[in-house]
Amino acid sequence: MDDYRRYLDPQTLAKVQNLDLAARQIVEGYVSGSHKSPFHGFSAEFAQHREYAIGDDLRYVDWKVYAKSDRYYLKQYEAETNFTCYILLDCSESMRYRSDGAALSKWEYVRLVAAALAYVVIKQQDAAGLCTVNDRVIDFLRPSSQPTHLKQIYHTLKHTEPTGESGLGKVFHELAERINRRSLIIVISDLFDDLDSVMLGLKHFRHRKHDVSLLQVIDPAEQDFPFQEPVLFRGLENQPEQMAEPRSLKKAYQAEFEKFLKSVQSGCRGLKMDYALIRTDESLDVALSAFLSHRQTRVGS
Amino acid sequence: MSLYLLFCRIDRRALVLNYFPNLNDMTDFSFHPVLAFGFASPWLLMGLLAAGIPVLIHLLHKRKFIETEWAAMKFLLIATKKYSRRVRFEQLLVLLVRCLILLLLAIAFSRPFWSVQGAFFESTAPVHRILVIDSSFSMRWNGEEQSVFEAAREMARTQISASNPGDAFQLIQISNSSPHALISRPSRQQAYVMDEITRMQPTEEYGNVGQALQTALEYLGQAQELAQKEVIVISDFQAQSWSPLQTDQGSSRIRSLLEAISKKSTLILKDIGLTEESNLAIIDFSSKSVFATLNEPIRLGVTLHNFGTLNQEEINLKLFVDGQLLNQKLVTLPANADTQTEFTHQFTRVGDHRLEVRLAEDLLPLDNRRWKIMPVKKEINVLLVNGRQSGESMGRATDYLELALSPSLKEQPWQGIIKPHVISEGELSNTELSLYDAVMICDVALFTENERDLLKSYVQRGGGLIISLGEQVHAENYNQTLFQPDAGLMPLKLLNRQGDAQKHTTLFEFDPLKYQHPVIEIFKGNPDAGLETTHLYEYFQTEILPGPNTRLILNYDTNDPAIVESTLGRGKMMLITTSLDRHWGTWAIWPSFPPMMNELVLYVATGKWGRREALVGQPLEIIALENQLPLSPRMVAPDQQEFPLLSVLDRNTETRTITFNQTFQSGIYELDWENSTSEKTLYAVNVSPQESDLKHIGPQSIPPEYFRRQASTPGPLTAMSVDRNSHAGLSENLLFTVLALIVVEQLLLWRFSVGALSFLAVMFLSCLSLFFQR
Questions:
Q1: B73 contacts in A (CB within 8 Å)?
Q2: What pLDDT band is residue B11 in, cutting at 50, 70 and 90?
Q3: Closest CA in chain B for residue A235
Q4: Which among B185, B262, B225 has a CA at the least distance from the CA of B705?
Q5: Closest chain B residue by Cα to residue A234
Q6: Residues of A in contact with B82 (CB under 8 A)
Q7: pTM assigned to the model
Q8: Higher per-residue pLDDT: A2 or A109
Q9: How far is CA B124 from CA B156, B515, B727, in A?
Q10: If pLDDT is split at 50, 70 and 90, which confidence band does B727 have?
């Protein structure tokens, strides 16, 4: 394996206890892998044009305007340097699940993703905040661009355990009212919740003009359903247990699960939100690039 | 054993359903099965337990599970709720197919069969039939149109013609020495079976019913693929064959064989015998002497029997000698009784003579003739071994004996048949004993083992030996050589001497033991012969050891043996426990002495000729002499068929023996040594008198229910349709279904819908084929 990929491999990262170190590894690994640098600004909304001056970054030239007017203008965005990002992390009990084929549980995985994202944001001197939720807000760290805030974020991530039932919809409503300033809200969850309620919550964020990105993290077994022998499934989050013959039920289960994923995807599309499906057996550059490339595309358009 | 329930019967192997009583005759409860099914190998139904294996695996499989936490329970619950019923149905169908595979396999191996009646349910499943045809000579009885045997053959041919394609047949004949099995392997070729039946001929043998039935019972184990079996016995059921009188065990064996056969098959007895038929037969033709002497009249006894209820008057009985009618007489034969008569004849030529007695022919002519061979000798050569030399006149141990056997006067030399030749005991080992018909030992003191072996070999080859004792005899030596257990000549032991010949202190006389032995029979009613008045003063007390071949001829009045007879190999021996001279008594000069010595010599000298008569099927055993060994003998049967012969060394008697087994015909057999200097040796083979009695067996021998009688009234079903009871085998059908279900199981696991459709198709086709099963 290339060195940089090693930093992004969940199996390797599973052994790294220090979140700070892990986050650095992820980001540097991502950078080393000839990905575009994440450290360039990106903003939520286009604000205005200004005339090009010698030395400006040609990446922000609005070429459409040039085509029309034959003159060079730069795009300017709102809060280009005062970008605020909220990372909403689902820490319900369902995030605790880890199958035999995965090196990390969903919670451990999303924790790494959140740490890496927070690192990226603060590294480029933007503000990043963290909110851990299940059916209520567990921890809420206001956004800050201070490097010391990153440590607080890591500390919170490290000391949060996935417990309780999911109730994201209700929490999103609450947070949508709470977060006044237009921000980027990154929701990282498995979304094993009342989907309608969740979508309504996300819609509330959109209504408040927030830029929302949804990273849905699932375990490979939840999608592949690899069981052969009869299994007694013990449900998390107070779900009942069920004895099942997996071989005969596999197709039916997968059909239901795919239906759920499609619903999430179409719901996000309808709300014009970024959506990425991430499995915990994928390397974390996938998680990052899936998110960041969307962001780049949106910024470039 | 059968259980009768209402309108059904459970047999050991089969369940028969839907009996309908014969409505036409309520006194005759003959039931007609409509449907019967059963299993040829019901014990294999234990394989049905194997059908529980998939269920057991299924249950055990269910019990083994793993546990895990699961976050996406919501989706699992929805999927379970939506598809559990279908999943359960799929699982059950797969389980059903697996159970059916094992179930049908077990049923197929148990070879089920069913029988249905009615034209609509006609079935042509094959039957294994064993035909047992009586070919004993009583079947030669000539009926009005044909013989009984021909009627039996016709009946057998009808059975073959009426059989279905695929029926397998085996053919057995009731005979004695002829091979029983004519078709030993089940044959489905009707033409071949017909041909075998056509080629069958009645034998001249006694019918050994037990042996034939035993063979049939063994054959029932063949053709395992045919569940339905029949044994058809066609016979005249003559009492002597079917209920042997020799022992009660014979008839009970036949009954037990019939019962055993009826348990394994349908037993059908076809009685084609004729009752109330009479028959005349010659049952015996014999003479007291094994051989005749030249120009000496000999009596030939004939025993006739009238197997009938009416006396037969003036029946002509003829005597043929060497093919020429020499004598005849009219005899009256009372009903159901033996009649003895005799002929007397004098032979004028040395050699073997063919004798035949003949009755007028009746409807069973085979037993109206009987043959006998009479060897005629010019002289009997006897070797006398003298154990006591003496210069006195009549002083030797053999002198009186020699005189008794061949009394000669100067002017009238002895012309008798017995020619004695005297040697001393020292010459014994150098004498060729085979030149003599008999050897008599007189007062020899000692014997060496070599001499003992010489005498033993001589007797085993048919020679006659008479040992007499006397003053010289060393009892201890005799006990250690001649009478040694196992290696000796006779199972005897000489004990102490009784009496005192010098002092005449005790007088002994003979006890003739009721004149039972043929040797002293001539003295019966003839007191002037002086047997019982013979005086003896001394003898050797003798202990006779237990043995089957030893017999007392004469005792002393002290109950001690005087003359003891024994056989060894083909020869005869005698021990006379006193002397044959005047030293120990007056016997040598007593009137009884010469006839007794002549009778003893003639009696022991018969061993060389062997048996010249046998019954049909009994072997003829011939001793080959040393000079005959290089020859290539052959036996010529009465129908002129020739058989080359081979001699075999008999280790017991140390002789080379020729055994001839092909005595299937009655008549004269000629043994041709193919040597111009040797005459042919003749043998007579006669039929067994047991087959001459045509009396039928009674119900105490064979229960009447074994005999199939013609149905007097038709049943209700037979009135409507052709009564065809037939049986269908289901094994192949079930095996094909099993194969198809194995494929169906795979299809179910691959694509359930395809598998389910194919399962329905297989079950439909299988039921259809069962319905039209043939």
A1: 233, 235-236, 239-240, 242
A2: very low
A3: B70
A4: B262
A5: B69
A6: 252, 256
A7: 0.55
A8: A109
A9: 20, 73, 7
A10: very low
